[in-house]
């Protein structure tokens, strides 16, 4: 008789769940026994999402009790006190004791962490970081944030705030970020800010311009788009090089929409990172393997870590 | 009958050794049984230093066999292969298997690490970092470098290069550093560079000006000195704030000559670090407790970690 792991992902606009037989962990490419994704209603709240997720999980389990439950949450989580701090997308998530609620429902140990830490763990265990001793996963998208795996486990920091590369300063005289500082990596390298700066620079009045479109225009040779895209790539590269000098991880794994910006972008990121790091500080920078399923695979990796916590 | 730990410090210009009874580790302020420091000859080499250190250690031990030997080395050490890579001050240290040599001499397990990691460990165990879960120790002196303690042990990085905050970039358009980059923390905040920049700014032709003198002049109200000192403090603070956003350590401990620059300097460092870190990223910044003896106490802490390595 096999045992089963239940992976859950509260993603802001979507709820996903999947069941993995423990025996699949021996496989090179483990396969879900069941897997489903539903949309979260736009006018929903935390309570609604939790109830919908419990129904979804139980349906996929089909009466089986899971060995454990791993949960990815798209917002700040207090890992030690097992509490969700808040959601930027869905109301009612302030200080929800999600772990306790789910432990009662599933009669199994539950672990919850935020999506950046979870994605880092998932890439390390099943994706672009297999066999690596230390990595920094960075998502470059609407925001820029990351998660560390050091010595084979998540490094969350003293109060769970580690990984905020998006708000490291790489140009103290640069443009002002929403956080109040100047020249943060996120201010220069995130999709929405690149779109905004492209509009200002080019004089475009198309309010629908996105980071993706800036990358496409740059690939077509648009001078302004190229300038903005490469400035963002350089800022990110300096941030990665600084992180390399500070922590000397073996690998950086980059995910998120902006990483689809093409070879020009990747070259500039790698070049700036290598220029910033000392010559003895070596690393590689690779694309993430997972997209939508990253949180679920990371939740599985989080459950595997349970035995080490005793 | 007590057991004894032997702590050794190869410091570039000085050799230090001390013997600690294991029972002293229970004390709040452990006291050396024996402790001595000798100057290393200016025309010496690695072989001479090693032989002098072995004689010194054996004399302090007085015929006792140490339980273990902990060694601080003032230069890059490959911790995993137990080899000293090189010394910037003394010839002949390239790839010396220091651990093996000392294990034969003392018939005891030996651990060697570089002085930044060792000082971090010493401050964490016996000094300004007692009871703290994670800290970054930074020495601000001729150079700027640091060492991490995460979860109660040294974090050295994938290839032992972690802690190089001095070569993180905080101003990509700043002055050129010896490492080739612009606006490194070390280029702006180290003693010799502050002295050099003060001379250039003030038009002084006194070639003996030091970082310490710049701090003294700033305290006396000299406008140029104040500008250079505060620029250095700001660069260091941005570097610390960036490190806080990335790793979220509980505390920063600062040592080295430049930290004696007075309240003006400390205020600016703390202010810039707090401005750079996100509001949720909290930490404190405190002076190191140890000065000359830091490496010896760190070497003791390194020996305590031996049992965890199995």
In words, what does this structure look like?
Two copies of one chain form a homodimer. The first copy, chain A, is an alpha/beta fold. Chain A folds into two domains: 136 residues, Nucleotidyltransferase, domain 5 (2-Layer Sandwich), CATH 3.30.420; 156 residues, ATPase, nucleotide binding domain (Nucleotidyltransferase, domain 5, 2-Layer Sandwich). Chain A is 38% helix and 20% strand. Chain A contains ten helices and twelve strands. In chain A, the strands form three sheets. Chain A has a five-stranded mixed sheet with strand order 3-2-1-4-7, sandwiched between helices. Chain A has a five-stranded mixed sheet with strand order 10-9-8-11-12. A two-stranded antiparallel sheet of chain A has the order 5-6. In chain A, strand 5 and strand 6 form a beta hairpin. In chain A, helix 6 crosses helix 7. Chain A is globular.
């Amino acid at each position: 008789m096999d045992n089963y792991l239940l992976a859950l992902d509260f993603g802001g606009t979507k709820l996903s769940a999947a069941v993995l037989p423990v025996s699949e962990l021996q496989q090179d490419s483990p396969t879900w026994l069941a897997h489903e994704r539903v949309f979260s209603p736009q006018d929903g709240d935390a309570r609604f999402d939790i109830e919908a997720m419990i129904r979804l999980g139980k349906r996929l389990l089909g009466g089986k009790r899971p060995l454990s439950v791993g949960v990815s949450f798209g917002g700040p989580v207090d890992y030690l006190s097992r509490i969700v701090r808040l959601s930027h997308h869905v109301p009612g998530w302030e200080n929800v004791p999600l772990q306790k609620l789910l432990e009662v429902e599933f009669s199994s140990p539950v672990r919850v962490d935020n999506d950046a830490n979870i994605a880092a763990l998932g890439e390390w265990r099943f994706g672009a970081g297999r066999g690596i001793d230390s990595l920094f996963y960075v998502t470059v998208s609407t925001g820029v944030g990351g998660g560390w795996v050091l010595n084979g486990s998540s490094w969350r920091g003293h109060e769970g705030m580690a990984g905020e590369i998006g708000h490291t300063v790489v140009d103290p005289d640069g443009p002002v970020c929403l956080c109040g500082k100047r020249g943060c990596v996120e201010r220069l390298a995130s999709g929405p800010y690149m779109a905004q700066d492209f509009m200002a620079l080019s004089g475009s009045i198309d309010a629908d311009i996105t980071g993706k479109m800036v990358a496409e225009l740059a690939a077509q040779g648009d001078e302004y788009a190229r300038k903005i895209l490469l400035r963002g790539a350089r800022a990110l590269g300096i941030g990665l090089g600084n992180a390399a000098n500070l922590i000397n991880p073996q690998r950086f794994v980059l995910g998120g929409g902006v990483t689809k910006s093409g070879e020009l972008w990747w070259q500039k990121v790698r070049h700036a990172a290598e220029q910033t790091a000392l010559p003895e500080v070596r690393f590689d920078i690779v694309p993430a393997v997972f997209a939508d399923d990253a949180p679920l695979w990371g939740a599985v990796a989080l459950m595997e870590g349970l035995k080490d916590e005793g």
